[in-house]
Amino acid sequence: MPQVTNVKIDQKIQEKNDQIAGRIRQKRQNFDIPMIDIMGSVGSGKTSVLEYFSREFAKNQKFLVINGDLATDIDAQRISRFGSKCIQINTGRGCHLMAFQIEKALDTIDLQKYDFIFVENVGNLICPSSTDVGADKKITITSVTEGPYVFRKHPVTFRMSDLAVLNKIDLALAMDIDIHEIIQGSKELYPQLEVVPTSAKTGEGMEVFAEKIGLSIN
Ligand SMILES: Nc1nc2c(ncn2[C@@H]2O[C@H](COP(=O)(O)OP(=O)(O)O)[C@@H](O)[C@H]2O)c(=O)[nH]1
Ligand SMILES: [Mg+2]
Questions:
Q1: Taking the CB of residue 123, how many other CB atoms lie within 10 A of it?
Q2: Which of 38, 48, 66, 95 to mutate to test the pocket of ligand 1 (most atoms within 8 A of CB)?
Q3: What distance lies between CA 26 and its chain's CA centroid?
């Protein structure tokens, strides 16, 4: 019996979340503003990528970043140094952001002022993939320092991703990682999934990544 109740509660939470995600999409459509949900492990480079975008590509466009983190505002502080508007959401024990949190954040903002919204989801390679936060696309940033098996070990996340980024390629040699082998392995598992190799440190691949998500390079 208790299990049955739990399933119903989960379903209700999911349904409610999806309703709110729909409202977020509607609201964004009215302002014609795209939104990307960035997922990935702690330390894969999500914040670094957003720092890079804010530094290099924000001359003629303004970014709004919603940062999910268990307890700190470190990421929002890091990115806002480069001029992007950041809203930090602390989830406590929550391992991913939910649509109601994004909706609340957006309610505090004049969306007309922005050209692009990024969600940096809570650092976690499992939980965020199954929750719709009202974005156009879900993107997973992984990195060579996570080793060669990430694509094989996280089928749900990569199936739910519209694009994957393999970051920190500047460290491939030191990590004894063959980037082409990893990308080939991913192609065999997820033929539809494109993997963009990047380094948020050297800038390699960052323009390609930006173009894939519809960011204008200026
Ligand atoms: N060498 C190298 N280090 C990186 C790269 N991207 C991020 N880092 C470093 O990796 C660490 C974690 O990055 P961060 O952006 O905070 O990861 P997040 O937890 O996914 O937001 C930081 O020390 C970054 O400087 C990269 O492409 N190359
Ligand atoms: Mg971060």
A1: 20
A2: 48
A3: 20
pLDDT tens digits, residue range 31-67? 999 999 999 999 999 999 999 999 999 999 999 999 9
- CA nearest ligand 1 atom 13, residue: 45
Residue with tokens 């014609």: 32
Judge whether 217 lies within some domain: no
101-142 per-position pLDDT tens digit: 999 999 999 999 999 999 999 999 999 999 999 999 999 999
pLDDT score for 2 = 58
Give me the number of domains the chain comprises: 1
* Domain residue limits at 12: 2-212
Domain assignment present for residue 218? The answer is no
For residue 17, the domain's CATH number is 3.40.50.300
Output the CA 193–ligand 2 centroid distance in Å.
23
Q: Ligand nearest 43 Cα, by number?
A: 1
Q: Which residues surround ligand 2, an ion (CB under 5 A)?
A: 46-47, 75
Whether this prediction's pTM lies above 0.90 is answered by: yes
Residues 6+ apart with CB under 8 A from 217: 57, 207, 210, 211
**Would residue 124 count as lying in a domain?**
yes
